[in-house]
């Protein structure tokens, strides 16, 4: 799941993404693994299994051919089987992933999504750590568990959080998006148009025709997603974050953030900065699957 919100983009058609066999030759219908570590960029790949990844701590970014997703703490990313994607596990990330044989999840869709995960699904994902996806042995109890969890996840796919930015294969729009994300603290449409070598009018028109939204709407969404990522870094104040993403007025930032996220910046920061509890299964710390 990317190096940063402004990472270099590889068009999927220009290089073949690797197919990762997370079962390592096994036949498990479902299983899980825990990731804990420093920053990691996976490279472009796909799986033959569906994946749901819950962020316990830290921020994960997921990029596909059509969108760039932010996975903040206490939410989950859904990645259907066969979807080419790249992920960045930023510093101090801790995630739990559950993999499903495609037969277990009705109506998986064909795109990635960020989901607001119900407590029941979260607890079942943590419980699932007792069954690593790469295990060799067949377990009918595990099969029944993952059948049930798969149906719950299928229902949860309707509860999508709007935490993504569009991507584009248009060279001008793609370059303008990259420049915008690299200069969120002070960027203007005039600077972007000069950087990509077109007039402001042309830039605005191409954003509209290619993405279906204005450059200013893209800028606002990019700033708010970056703010959500920054809040996951310990020690950042609301004022520091708002300034870093280009807001001169704290009230304007709080208003925009609340409208986009459904809660105030301070409330969001308190919620995601709560120290994560050790992940346990039957009183024992969960092990890590590479």
From TrEMBL:
Molecular function terms from GO: DNA-binding transcription factor activity; sequence-specific DNA binding
Give the species.
Parafrankia soli
Fetch the CDD domains from UniProt: cupin_NimR-like_N (cd06124)
What is the superkingdom listed in this entry's lineage? Answer: Bacteria
InterPro entries of this UniProt entry? AraC-bd (IPR003313), Homeodomain-like_sf (IPR009057), HTH_AraC (IPR018060), HTH_AraC-typ_CS (IPR018062), RmlC-like_jellyroll (IPR014710), RmlC_Cupin_sf (IPR011051), Tscrpt_reg_AraC-type_HTH (IPR020449)
Q: Keywords assigned by UniProt?
A: DNA-binding, Transcription, Transcription regulation
All residue ranges annotated as the HTH araC/xylS-type domain in the record = 174-271
* PANTHER family xrefs: HTH-TYPE TRANSCRIPTIONAL REGULATOR NIMR, TRANSCRIPTIONAL REGULATOR-RELATED
Which protein is depicted? AraC family transcriptional regulator
């Amino acid at each position: 799941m990317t190096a940063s919100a402004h990472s270099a983009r590889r068009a999927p058609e220009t290089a073949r993404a690797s197919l990762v066999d997370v079962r390592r030759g096994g036949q498990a219908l479902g299983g899980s693994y825990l990731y804990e570590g420093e920053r990691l960029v996976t490279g472009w790949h796909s799986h033959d299994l569906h994946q749901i990844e819950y962020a316990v701590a830290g921020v994960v970014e997921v990029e596909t051919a059509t969108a760039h997703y932010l996975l903040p703490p206490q939410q989950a990313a859904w990645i259907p089987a066969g979807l080419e994607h790249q992920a960045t596990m930023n510093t101090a990330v801790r995630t739990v992933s559950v993999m499903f044989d495609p037969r277990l999840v009705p109506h998986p869709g064909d795109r990635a999504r960020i989901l607001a995960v119900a407590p029941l699904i979260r607890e079942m994902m943590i419980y699932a750590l007792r069954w690593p996806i790469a295990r060799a042995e067949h377990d009918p109890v595990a099969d029944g568990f993952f059948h049930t969890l798969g149906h719950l996840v299928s229902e949860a796919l309707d509860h999508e959080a709007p935490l993504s930015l569009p991507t584009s294969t248009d060279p001008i729009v793609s370059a303008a998006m990259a420049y915008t994300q690299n200069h969120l603290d002070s960027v203007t449409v005039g600077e972007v148009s000069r950087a990509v070598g077109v007039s402001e009018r042309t830039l605005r028109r191409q954003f509209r025709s290619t993405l279906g939204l204005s450059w200013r709407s893209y800028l606002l969404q990019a700033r708010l997603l970056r703010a959500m990522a920054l809040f996951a870094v310990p020690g950042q104040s609301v004022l520091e974050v708002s300034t870093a993403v280009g807001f001169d007025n704290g009230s304007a930032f709080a208003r925009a953030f609340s409208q986009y996220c459904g809660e105030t910046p301070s409330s969001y920061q308190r919620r995601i900065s709560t120290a994560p509890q050790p992940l346990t299964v039957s009183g024992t710390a969960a092990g890590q699957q590479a």
